[in-house]
Amino acid sequence: MAEQHPPSSRPLKISMVIYPGAQCLDVTGPLEVFALANRQLRDDGLRIDNVYEIELLAEAAGPVPTSSGIKLFADKPYCDAGDMDTLLVCGGTDEGVKAQQENGDLIPWLHYCAPRVRRLGSICNGALILAGAGLLHGKRATTHWMDVPALQALGDIDVDPDAIYVRDGRIYTSAGITSGIDLALALVEEDCGRRLALKVARRLVLYLKREGGQTQYSAHLSSQVESDQFGQLIEWIYRNLAAPITVTRLAEMAAMSPRNFARCFLQETGMTPAKFVERARVEKSRQLLSEQSLPMEKVAVQCGFQSQEQLRRAFRRQMGVLPSDYRKHFNG
């Protein structure tokens, strides 16, 4: 896969709708991703100007109190917003969201903007505002796990309760709070490529793509490998660690001979395919050992090891300790 370069024309305008009771992190988290993308591109010498222009929109320009009491400053009223590339609606308190669902100015404005922006999205329970406007009808979507029943009650919406974020055409929805950052990273990857998104994730000390399931936490950064050529294949490996994974199978998926694939993979990632798969399996076992009380045999099976002994050897080789000792240390 060829590296994607950032757009070279005028900046892409990212507009975020805020309102009294907005969740501060729903706003600042995703927008920080776009700001850091600008900074990273300048640091890399790829841009001298910004690829993203960020603005806050509200019912009126000026300070807007958030759920934490912190005030955010809206740049302009949303009715005065001009052309936008991406329009996002943040989540907030139950009272704040309900007030916006009944806002006679915001709802018609969202209807007007929906077909005119390249991307329309929501953070956390901001999906309830989009749904209340009828913009998620017939769409697949997600929201904060606590608001799943409320979203399901708002019409013909295919609600995925475990997704970190969902894209359905031009509509994007993210799950609870910090998953808005995951969504923003995905949008940066769409616009500018995996390499930039990965660098931004590392700056934020985040995992570029978390597995589905809002109950899961970010995995270890050491599992992330910067690879444009094998990015999709690496994601497939992470999703299928419990299955048999051979060099022959991976080579077939990459449409290469096993020998050429092994050589190219080593050159691209700095490790052999076998070593990479083992490391990914150990990383997953670390997550399971620290977060769940599964028997060691089930940990081995879910991570793709043929036996507890194979898990034990690989874990000690990678981590320098036995998995049983790691679990005792992690769980106190």
From TrEMBL:
In which organism is this protein found? Microbulbifer marinus
Presence of the UniProt keyword Ribonucleoprotein in the record: no
Per the database record, which ranges form the HTH araC/xylS-type domain? 231-329
Q: Which Gene3D superfamilies does this entry report, sorted A to Z?
A: 3.40.50.880, Homeodomain-like (1.10.10.60)
Keyword annotations from UniProtKB, A to Z: DNA-binding, Transcription, Transcription regulation
This chain belongs to the protein called Transcriptional regulator, AraC family with amidase-like domain
Q: Which Pfam families match?
A: DJ-1_PfpI, HTH_18
According to the UniProt entry, its GO molecular function terms are: DNA-binding transcription factor activity; sequence-specific DNA binding
